[in-house]
Amino acid sequence: MSKKPAPDSWEPSATGSDGTNHHYVVSPDGHVRIDYEAWELRKSEFLEAPGVTDLRSGKLLFGLPPYFDASENWTGPHAFTLSVREGVHFERIGVAVDVDAGTITIERTGEVHPFARAQKAIRRALEDYRASLPPPPPPPPPPPKTLLERLPRPASGWKNWFLMLLIAVTFYAVFLGFLFWNQHN
């Protein structure tokens, strides 16, 4: 009796929805169910926090809180990789889940952790990954100022009004002087 070769990509055996903000995916062999609970982060942006259940025992293996977002990729009959991000950050890490061993493996570092420490390990791995990224580029320089923006601003309050009155009186006196000079020349 020959074994069937493993497919290149595994497809879930079942998917569905139990409500507006909840959907699930069942492993290709039907032994593992991943429940996704959708939480609105911002207007029309949702985070889908996963919870992994062993259907053979009915036991919740591990779950992530609502500020995590994940999607799965099946790598075997009941083995999968979660692509995880946290909140508003767009950096994702891969987390390989081994249901038989009861562990997760952070793909970037190779660290192996039991399901009981999955949440803390994933959060720490995301923080370490974000810390290892280069700092963002500096913001672009502001556009050059116009001529009016370069002029010094007058003081506020009564000083501003007094200055405007002084300028107006001066221009009026110069204008009257010009008219007087034109009449006599």
Distance between the termini: 124 Å
- Spatial strand sequence of the major β-sheet: 1-2-3-4-5
Q: Determine the strand fraction and express it as a percent band.
A: 35-45%
Give the rounded overall mean pLDDT. 84
Main sheet overview: 5 strands, antiparallel
Order of helices and strands: EEEEEEEEEEHHH
Shape, principal axes of CA atoms? rod-shaped
Please report the number of helical segments: 3
Radius of gyration (CA) equals 34 Å
Structural class: alpha+beta
Helix content: 10-25%
Let me know the number of strands.
Answer: 10
Poorly predicted ranges: 1-5
Describe this structure in words.
Helices cover 25% and strands 35% of the residues. By secondary structure, it is α+β, with helices and mostly antiparallel strands. It has a 5-stranded antiparallel sheet, with no helix packed on it. The chain has a 5-stranded antiparallel sheet with strand order 6-7-8-9-10, with helices on one face. A hairpin with a 4-residue loop joins strand 8 and strand 9. The N terminus is likely disordered.
List keywords for this structure.
5-stranded antiparallel sheet, 185 residues, alpha+beta, 3 helices
List the helices and strands and how they pair.
Elements: E1 14-19, E2 22-26, E3 32-42, E4 45-54, E5 59-63, E6 68-74, E7 79-86, E8 93-98, E9 103-106, E10 112-114, H1 118-132, H2 147-150, H3 158-184
Antiparallel strand pairs: 1-2, 2-3, 3-4, 4-5, 6-7, 7-8, 8-9, 9-10
